[in-house]
Design brief:
Bound molecules: 1,6-di-O-phosphono-beta-D-glucopyranose, magnesium ion
Order of helices and strands: EHHHHHEHEHEHEHEH
Radius of gyration: 17 Å
CATH architecture of the largest domain: 3-Layer(aba) Sandwich
Number of helices: 10
Shape: globular
CATH superfamily of the largest domain: HAD superfamily/HAD-like
Number of strands: 6
CATH topology of the largest domain: Rossmann fold
């Protein structure tokens, strides 16, 4: 029986993916290269370190350890400039209502995000009080597709993986949920995500009740 919902942040609750894309593209261009929207799918849900590693590969760039750190800091600075504009009106369609309905129904709620900026973003959106626990990039050793972030979320809620549904918009995140033994609702299409149990374009297309009946 499902008792907990584990939410990815970027691409499920709020569209910070566009901000990540803009900031990483500035980095790629600074390195004399670029990358496509299709390549950007591979960065979704992936940690900052792993994202930069991929971009260096794509742009054929080699850097020292210090340069690597400096590029990560610069990307985060550019990303945070965009994030400061966020407010509680920036939730993806239906996401904030969905969270409130789940809370009102007594479902335990966790965040399972790769982002080290997750608390800041949830605070800007006034959503912190809805979360029973937050597991983010600051609390895990292994990034998605490793299931650690969701296993820690379920554990913090006192639930088994089988009692949880993960909501994910990234290929890496869907893999993390399934290898952790959880049900997974994909926010996106089966063509891009594959592997999830159900798909919706946004949380507004479904309800906690529908999912509790279906999964
Ligand atoms: P930060 P999620 C992920 O968030 C993003 O999808 C991914 O593009 C980003 O690189 C990662 O967070 C790390 O973010 O640089 O803010 O620590 O989808 O797992 O909520
Ligand atoms: Mg995501």
């Amino acid at each position: 029986m499902i008792k907990g919902f584990l939410f990815d942040l970027d691409g499920v609750i709020v569209d910070t993916a566009v901000f990540h894309f803009q900031a990483w593209r500035r980095i790629a261009q600074k390195l004399g290269g670029d990358f496509s929207k299709a390549q950007n799918e591979q960065l979704k849900g992936v940690s900052r370190v792993d994202s930069l590693t991929k971009i260096l590969e794509w742009t054929g760039t080699t850097v020292t350890e210090e340069e690597f750190k400096a590029l990560m800091e610069l990307k985060n600075e550019w990303y945070l400039e965009l994030v400061t504009r966020l407010s509680d009106k920036d939730g993806l369609p239906g996401a904030v209502d969905f969270l409130h309905h789940a809370k009102a129904r007594g479902i335990a709620i966790a965040l399972g995000s790769a982002s080290k900026n997750a608390v800041l973003i949830l605070d800007k959106m006034n959503l912190l009080p809805l979360f029973d626990t937050i597991i983010d990039g600051n609390n895990v050793v292994n990034g998605k597709p490793h299931p650690e972030v969701f296993l820690k979320g379920a554990e913090a809620l006192g639930l088994s993986p089988a009692e949880c549904i993960v909501f994910e918009d990234s290929i890496a995140g869907v893999q993390a949920a399934k290898s952790g033994g959880m049900s997974c609702v994909g926010i996106g299409t089966p063509e891009v995500l594959g592997g999830a149990d159900l798909y919706f374009n946004a949380l507004g297309e479904t309800s906690p009740e529908e999912l509790l009946r279906a999964l």
